[in-house]
Design goal:
Layout: H1 7-21, H2 25-47, H3 49-65, H4 76-90, H5 105-112, H6 125-139, H7 146-149, H8 157-180, E1 189-196, E2 205-211, E3 216-222, E4 233-240, E5 245-251, E6 254-261, E7 268-276, E8 292-297
Antiparallel strand pairs: 1-2, 1-8, 2-3, 3-6, 4-5, 4-7, 7-8
Helix pairs in contact: 1-2, 2-3, 2-4, 2-6, 3-4, 3-6
């Protein structure tokens, strides 16, 4: 989208991007205040209101991870629009146009309408976004630009060797600990069997579980699952070892259902698929699966 940006705004955006890359909470909050409603509106248009919160969080975290791709002073909105489409597509949302680089102002305007009609993000979403991005920056801070490191690079050898040895030791210890507790590494793939309850037909089969760096990815061929024609839909959840329920998303059958959840394999105990009524589509207060149609043990 084309925005008129006076020189003062361009300069302010460059400073804002600098703070955002550092994971500065004030800069993250400023970016959310200026662009959060746009990202939320596009996420809701692509994935529905029930997935807009999670998609918006994922987009902002990915924005921090890929912030080096934005030139200082560049407009944020076109970049965030492309990122939102990519994240939604990666998480199983059917997106047209299929590629983010095919976005046009007309397509975005048609998807989200005029700004006065955008859905209002939940008040607590701003705090969740700031916490997610600043936590990510704390765990994996972005390295300063090469030019900013100056003469200090000449004394890099000894710290680099010490860091490499420390990293190797950490990886060895981590591998032993993960093996002891039955953990999985990023890229691991396995299948689990769905156990149907008999509520609907075709709710059995296998689910492929893929470990990524940040979450679990579930791929399910739901071709034989009874499709809903009354407005109801299926919801998927993961139960953690401490009893927390992590929503994965919704679907209505299909041969390529892809769901993701912010949970790691050692902490994921059960996958549950429930059937929700059409009236629950916009209800953000639901915290438990209802009318369970199938479940799978993720610890077997």
């Amino acid at each position: 989208m084309h925005e008129f940006r006076p020189p003062a705004v361009v300069e302010a955006d460059a400073e804002l991007l600098h703070g955002f890359r550092r994971g500065d909470a004030d800069a993250v909050g400023s970016l959310i205040d200026r662009q959060g409603a746009f990202v939320y509106a596009l996420a809701a248009a692509l994935g529905g209101s029930d997935r807009a919160d999670a998609l918006t969080v994922h987009v902002l975290v990915q924005a921090w991870r890929n912030s080096e791709a934005v030139a200082p002073g560049s407009a944020f909105r076109p970049w965030l629009a492309q990122l939102t489409v990519r994240v939604a597509s990666h998480e199983g949302v059917a997106v047209a146009p299929p590629a983010a680089d095919q976005l046009t102002d007309e397509w975005i305007d048609a998807a989200i309408g005029d700004e006065v009609t955008w859905p209002a993000p939940p008040p607590e979403l701003r705090d969740d976004l700031i916490a997610a991005v600043t936590a990510e920056a704390f765990v994996a801070p972005v390295a300063p630009p090469r030019a900013a490191r100056g003469e200090s690079e000449r004394a890099w050898l000894r710290p680099a060797l010490v860091g490499a040895l420390a990293t190797l030791l950490f990886l060895l210890v981590g591998t032993v600990v993960l093996s002891f507790f039955g953990g999985n590494e990023a890229g691991d793939e396995r299948t689990v069997d769905l156990q149907p309850t008999g509520l609907v037909e075709g709710a059995d089969g296998e689910v492929t579980v893929i470990d990524t760096i940040d979450d679990l990815r579930f791929e399910y061929d739901a071709t034989l699952l009874e499709r809903r024609t009354d407005g109801s839909f299926y919801e998927a959840w993961v139960t953690t070892a401490d009893g927390e329920l992590i929503p994965l998303g919704t679907f209505n059958g299909g041969d390529d259902v892809v769901l993701t959840g912010a949970v790691q394999s050692p902490n994921a105990t059960e996958l549950t698929i429930g059937l929700s009524a059409a009236s629950a589509a916009g209800d953000s207060t639901r915290v438990v699966p209802v009318n369970i149609v199938a479940s799978a043990d993720l610890q077997e």
